[in-house]
Amino acid sequence: MQTLLQVYFRMPIFFRLLSSVLLLMMFFGISIHILEPEHFPTIFDGIWWAFVTGSTVGYGDYVPLSSSGRLVAILLILAGGGLVTFYMATISAGTIKHERDLSKGLVKYRGKDHIILVGWNERTKQLMEMIVERDMRKQIVLIDHTMNNLPYQKHQLHFVRGSAFEDETLEKANLKQAKYAVVTADPSKKELQADQATILTAVAIKGNNPEITLITEILTKDQIKNASRAGADSIIRSNDFMSTLIFHELFRHKPVKPFELLIQVLADQQFHQFPLPEELDDKTFLQCADYYAVSEQLLIGIMRDEQMLVNPSFSTKLQRGDTLIVLSSLHE
């Protein structure tokens, strides 16, 4: 008996109340069947009457006629009605609390193969919108310590409030079952401080899940090696990227606008890397470009000896070990 009571009180309150309601209705249903077997021929009939009466629905299909039966009905209305009402109120309050905790980032994420975004800023917001608009069917978990609640509601977004370099926060984001993690630079900090925070977060993420694909944003060149040492699989050098774009905007040939052109290309196309097919060994770059053009893909360069050759001479001979850089539609 003591063990059953211990199990009962360790159960969540929803299950405790539900089991209490079931036991109470079964007790009154069996009691009315014993007291008035002619009016309640089966135990199920008695339980049905107990639920209908206790929930104050009152269909009237079964009615106790004896004094003892009516006394049982009075006790059922007093005890059962209050318990059922309390049970429904608890469910409603629990649902509201769960929604409030979701908005505040207090609920643990239970899914897997999701994307973890660290930091709520314009970059992560646009990235999330692109994933949703292109119907990538990826669940996103956002980790941020600056917001008290999430103002941006999307069914694919789960918010976890906290610092991404803390194990408790990463566990709440279910990092060990995540597929990707993206750490963006904190715009509220100076560049060096932002990079240090990014590297610390990268160490924490890779320490908890060495298999995850980690993408980090680094602002200063000196910290690129440290980000690599921390385990980043891909390092986005946003300052280098923006400086190059500004340079092209300064010295562009009208009417071409490099920034708009590149954004449009990246929005609709995707880069791929393929090992050189055997049939293209010792072929020219032009012949390889024609090979991929048949499948509506654009060969733009090659990787050779850890060097990237973009738009090489058409007469350049490809050799075994080269990696081809191909641009193709995002939906292919």
Summarize the structure.
The protein is an alpha/beta fold and 332 residues long. 47% of the residues lie in helices and 16% in strands.
Task: Annotate the secondary structure layout.
Blueprint: H1 2-10, H2 13-35, H3 43-54, H4 67-104, E1 115-118, H5 122-133, E2 140-144, E3 157-161, H6 167-172, E4 180-183, H7 191-208, E5 213-218, H8 224-229, E6 234-237, H9 238-250, H10 258-268, E7 269-275, H11 285-293, E8 298-304, E9 307-310, E10 323-329
Parallel strand pairs: 1-2, 1-4, 2-3, 4-5, 5-6
Antiparallel strand pairs: 7-10, 8-9, 8-10
Helix pairs in contact: 2-3, 2-4, 3-4
Helix-strand makeup class: alpha/beta
- What's the helical proportion of residues? 40-55%
Q: How many domain units?
A: 3
Indicate the radius of gyration in whole angstroms.
32 Å
Distance between the termini: 63 Å
**Which term fits the overall shape?**
elongated
Quickly name the level 1 CATH class of the largest domain: Alpha Beta
**Largest beta-sheet details:** 6 strands, parallel
| CATH topology term of the largest domain | Rossmann fold
How does this structure look, described?
This protein is α/β, with parallel strands linked by helices. The chain has 3 domains: 2-104, Helix Hairpins (Orthogonal Bundle), CATH 1.10.287; 115-242, NAD(P)-binding Rossmann-like Domain (Rossmann fold), CATH 3.40.50.720; 268-329, 2-Layer Sandwich (Alpha-Beta Plaits). It contains 11 helices and 10 strands. It has helices at residues 2-10, 13-35, 43-54, 67-104, 122-133, 167-172, 191-208, 224-229, 238-250, 258-268, 285-293; strands spanning 115-118, 140-144, 157-161, 180-183, 213-218, 234-237, 269-275, 298-304, 307-310, 323-329. The strands form 2 sheets. A 6-stranded parallel beta sheet has the order 3-2-1-4-5-6. A 4-stranded antiparallel beta sheet has the order 7-10-8-9. The model has no long low-confidence stretch (mean pLDDT 83). One of its GO terms (cellular component) is plasma membrane. Pfam families: Ion_trans_2, TrkA_N.
